[in-house]
Design a protein that fits this description.
heterodimer; A: mainly beta; four-stranded antiparallel sheet; about 50% strand; B: mainly beta; globular
């Protein structure tokens, strides 16, 4: 069975600074997706970034980038130029490839990020 | 374009009762997913519906069930409610069965069982 671990329950960062959230996962699969989702106080889960395991290049979305280390089963999220609106809970998630696994995301426990002015 | 919409926002039920939660996917999306976010248990996959059929379910008892209608909207039914069913229930949708399609979430329905 796959597991996702986020070892940092809470983190804080000053506005405009950079912060990195950690995530490790355990799987015997070779083909999968990894995601970071953001859950602000509104509770809606918002996709931040995703990475296909077969791609060696790290995904980037504006101020958000990942460091994907497949051999180490590590998938960290870097937020650059942190903004107050980045304050939220961040979830790392794993999903196996394959039609039978569609939508079956396995989430980590979450990291609460507070951006301070 | 409207996102995934869920109703009701909040629901309070008594132990042993039945609860129904509803979800409308993004227009054009055929797959609907349900997740439970319970305190201390994190986010757990519940059910996946596509084209009106249940395609996959998580490790939940049979009293958690649902269905998908011809317009792709979905409802989640929870029978014989227990206190530990209190949670935020998130609905999500995507276009088609391809596992690479992006999944979009709604804002959830809070279910409180007293």
């Amino acid at each position: 069975a796959q597991t996702v671990t986020q070892s940092q329950p809470e983190m804080s960062v000053q506005e405009a600074e950079t912060v990195t959230l950690s995530c490790t996962y355990d799987t015997s699969e070779n083909n999968y997706y990894l995601f970071w989702y953001k859950q602000p106080p509104s509770r809606q889960m918002i996709l931040v970034i995703r990475q296909e395991a077969y791609k060696q290049q790290n995904a980037t979305e504006n101020r958000f980038s990942v460091n994907f280390q497949k051999a180490a089963k590590s998938f960290s999220l870097k937020i650059s130029d942190s903004q107050l609106g980045d304050t939220a809970m961040y979830f790392c998630a794993f999903m196996k490839l394959g039609s039978g696994n569609t939508g079956k995301l396995i989430f980590g426990q979450g990291t609460t990020l507070q951006v301070k002015p | 374009e409207a996102g995934v919409t869920q109703s009701p926002t909040h629901l309070i039920k008594t132990r042993g009762q039945h609860a129904t939660l509803r979800c409308s996917p993004i227009s054009g999306h055929t797959s609907v997913y349900w997740y439970q976010q319970a305190l201390g248990l994190g986010l757990q996959f519940l059910l996946w519906y596509d084209e009106g059929e249940e395609r996959n379910r998580g490790n939940f008892p049979p009293r958690f069930s649902g269905r998908q209608f011809p317009n792709y909207s979905s409802e989640l039914n929870v029978n014989a409610l227990e206190l530990e069913d209190s949670a935020l229930y998130l609905c999500a949708s995507s276009s088609g069965q391809f596992s690479g399609n992006t999944i979009y979430f709604g804002e959830g329905s809070w279910l409180t069982v007293v």
